Amino acid sequence: MTQQTQQLQAQLWNIANTLRGKMDADDFRDYILGFIFYKYLSKKMELYGNEILEPDNLKFRDLEGHPQEAEYIEAVRDAALDKLGYFLLPSELFSELARRGNSGGKHQFILGDLTRVLTHIEQSTMGSESEEDFGNLFEDLDLTSSKLGKSENDKNELIVKVLSHLEEIDFDIANSESDMLGNAYEYLIGQFASGAGKKAGEFYTPQQVSNVLAQLVTLGKDKLKSVYDPTCGSGSLLLRVAKQVKQVGGFYGQEMNPTTYNLCRMNMIMHDVHYKKFDIKNENTLEKPQHLDMRFEAIVANPPFSAKWSASPLFMSDDRFAAYGKLAPSSKADFAFVQHMVHQLADNGTMACVLPHGVLFRGAAEGHIRKYLIEDRNYLDAVIGLPANIFYGTSIPTCILVLKKNRSEAKNILFIDASQHFEKVKTQNVLRDGDITKVIDVYKAYSSGAFDDAVVDKYSYVAPLAEVAENDYNLNIPRYVDTFEEEEPVDLQQVSQDLKQLEKEIRKTDNTIQQFCDELGIDTPF
């Protein structure tokens, strides 16, 4: 990471901490991330406006009051809607509102203007191809909320301070090679997640886990037609996959929580993913899937652990579940998510998802589904045990399941026990770079057929399918990876000598106590 990126991250987090006062980090998150996004859109708009107007020797800001203002604005608007997906007037730019808020050395009232501008950004896309990608993006920025302050002036003062602080920071957006702001945005989402307790897991997968999943699904590829996450949260997993390859044709995801859905779309745009290249939907994936007719080359997911779902008998005629003969229980949707992803996986694709350990050994319907995936379909490629306490808001141990559809020749399943390989940082366990590399190196060796390199003592094992069948399709990792450590043999001769030595020392101490008691004229305690 560059020093510049670290500096930007520190500055942004400092602003968030200083300005939120008594407000919950969770509440302030939506404001600070929303305003950073607004500044990003403004800067992109200004840079693109300048680019279009360069042949006329004009700057975008100069259009206000220009004799041909209306024609120029119309031309820039049309071009911007196609290229950027939205449009802002010169008077609506972030820097203009920050300047107005601070004009004359005291805070001017800009809340009304700001509300209008944010609404106009969304409205500018109406009827255009980007309408769905920008619709309601700012709905969580409630500028009337009492959390911002008691009076309208208090609210205004806080917002002006936030805009002023952000205005002083150079986001380096003109440098198209830099993803400094995207990385900083991702960092902020992670920081808010680590401080938000239980709710955090809903919108953010720790970077080191994202890294493992992304490397697993991109192994041997430098381009992907598509990547999909059925429970995409803030989009961190999808974006992490993009960092592993040179090119991704399209990003697809579904997210049930409207606030998190907005955050995901912002995150995509902030990482310079063009609005035509991503398709994120706001719906319940299991009950109302939005991409059912599509098949994806890479699928990554960190679904909510053991979530409830309807498990309606109607799903028995749903193509995602029908072949299995049984549905995942309504109290634990883990396997319903697996079945959904398998259905959406392309024949040449790989999927990797994080699940609670229970999916490896729970019986009844889940055992039936597990057996079908292994015995009937032979889709399960690897089982990777992760350390406990690496996710925000839950300390339970988790695992990664890797599934592929083109395993017709494979007669094995790889088991990795990475549960003891981590570093404790404050209250959280963290996978180090070396821990991640070890997992990926073993999986690489296994995938290339180098089983000797894939079997590491007390760490990994390549289990023949026949052995898994003998274990009644129970995938509990200790059944396959023996991590038992032999205890050192006890040297009884040495123990005997140590006891004799101890006896001598006790007698010596007793003599000393006897002398003290005699001098004091009291009885000994023995």
Number of strands: 11
Number of helices: 17
Structural class of the secondary elements? alpha/beta
Sheet with the most strands, sense and barrel status? 9 strands, mixed
Any idea what the shape is? globular
- For the largest beta sheet, what order do the strands appear in spatially? 3-2-1-4-5-7-6-8-11
Summarize, please.
The protein is built from 17 helices and eleven strands. By secondary structure, the chain is α/β, with parallel strands linked by helices. The strands form two sheets. Strands 3-2-1-4-5-7-6-8-11 form a nine-stranded mixed β-sheet. Strands 9-10 form a two-stranded antiparallel ribbon.
Descriptive labels:
9-stranded mixed sheet, 526 residues, two-stranded antiparallel ribbon, 44% helix, alpha/beta, 17 helices, globular
Describe, in plain words, how this protein is organized in 3D.
This protein has 526 residues and is α/β, with parallel strands linked by helices. The chain is 44% helix and 13% strand. The chain is built from 17 helices and eleven strands. The strands form two sheets. It has a nine-stranded mixed beta sheet. The protein has a two-stranded antiparallel sheet with strand order 9-10. Helix 4 (94-101) crosses helix 7 (152-167). The model has no long low-confidence stretch (mean pLDDT 90).
